[in-house]
Here is the input.
Amino acid sequence: MRYLLMISTLFVGAVLPVQAVLNSKLGKQTGGPLIGSLLSFLIGLIFLLVINLLTNYTALTSIKPLSVTPWYVWLGGLLGAAFVTCVILVNQQQGVALTFALVVTGQILISLIIDHFGLFGSAVQPISLYKVMGAMLIIAGLFLIKN
Here is the structure.
């Protein structure tokens, strides 16, 4: 099961550059990156609404009150919108490979910090020499892709 999850995650990661190119094209053809992001999220919202209605409709009628969750968990949607908009803006100028090399580098660096300190309620995974070396190799790869 673990390997299936890893392969699924790899596939989802591979889809992100395709999404970036499609969203950039959508933004160009509809009036800019902000409207492109809006339309992308609208399509995603409709898709998720339909999927929830088909598979999990009772969850929609029994959503827990906002007060039972910490305020910061609601920032996920905001961060997702900022990510998609930023990718739409920058990948046309610097290319998809560099854009996602930067994305992955940022993800690894903040992930190491989140894991090490157990931020946002995540399990603590102490930083190690191997993890630091892996991050350094990713940063080196970023410089190779840049040039």
User: Anything to note?
Assistant: Residues 95-147 form one domain. Residues 97 and 145 are 7 Å apart (CA to CA). The chain has two domains: 16-93, 95-147.
